[in-house]
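Chapter review: from sequence to fold.
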Amino acid sequence: MIARYSRPAMSRIWDEESRYLRWLEVELAVCDAWAAVGRIPQNAIQAIRARAGFDVARIREIEATVQHDVIAFLTSVAERVGPESRHIHLGLTSNDVVDTAQALQIREAADLLLQGLEGLRQAIETRAFEHKNTVMIGRTHGMHAEPITFGLKLAVWHDQVRRDVARLEAARARIAVGKLSGAVGTFAHLDPETEARALRALGLRPVPIASQVIARDRHAEFIAAIALAATSIESFAVEIRHLQRSEVGEVEEPFGKGQKGSSAMPHKRNPVGCEQMAGLARLLRGSMTAAFENVPLWHERDISHSSAERVILPDATILLDYMLHRFTGIVAGMVVDARAMRRNLEASGGLIFSGNVLLALAGKGVTREQAYDWVQGAAMKARAGGGDFPDLLKAEPGIAATLTAPEIERCFDLDHQLRHVEELFRRVFGRA
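The token string follows.
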């Protein structure tokens, strides 16, 4: 049974109270920076630190009149701080606070997502080693190709998740920046040294230059990394869905005790979790489109990006967080039928080794075109029910004149076909 998603931590990052707490954190860091250079008296900073706070309901009440969230927030804080509140927001514009605080939220969300990706990576690695030597048929164009192992399939997933981690880490580093340079980015009312001091206290780097806003290509990169991670999950889920088809029956997502697959057909065990992954990945790719549209803004700032970000940043991080939790459970609990894999591999009667015969003939000096014609002829006859593929190969005069019966039989050696599994595992996992 897949555990229910119960991780409110991601949601809390984006709720109203957390957002205002981050705003207050930025404002206080700036006050501390000003106090360090004597712009704010020590007794004032002590009073601000002691009394600074806000009331969410009061902010909503004020905003209903002023129609400006940052002004409403500052008014609520001022009501608690008293006269010393005149030192709060010195030299800042609203977006200095909003963009810098949002970077703190994104960084925190990215850390949770990286934890989730690591959990998925570990689950895939565990199952990969469990099935390192579980032989199955590889498929291209949906058709039988050549043998692989289920562990190798999972190793491909693992390598892709590792790239998802690298992309998200890079995006996290790029977004962990702030700006306190004022209405058009010129530091007209707050100097770069004070900015650097305040941002250092917040664990952020100053952007080299900004307008009123931090350029939105950084945010687009973050959402793109999320959308790519979701698309990776979808691609793995689609593979499970194909392998769970009745005609294949090689892998199933977990099916819990008491779970029911259909209101009308009691026999059904549907891959609903994997189908859900596909649907949610579509939503996240939609968020990526909105994030890219947010990059072009008018002059030094407009707010067309703001309304979209209030939706896509919480939604994208929460959705991927859920997908990681859900799909990690699917990977950990998926049922692998090694007997069905072997049965399907053997269903072609050895046709999947045709490439080995082709290479053996070429190695004896036969032209590729001639060898292909001989092997394909025998293969098509076998597919049509005209006989056993190895026997048809031995009966083909050109092949029989070139390869001995033992040489033909060696072309069907499964162990030889998969002799590099250990090396592939070392390349992916660093161990075999």
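Two observations follow directly from the output. The first strand starts at residue 135 and ends at 140. The two ends are 30 Å apart (CA to CA).
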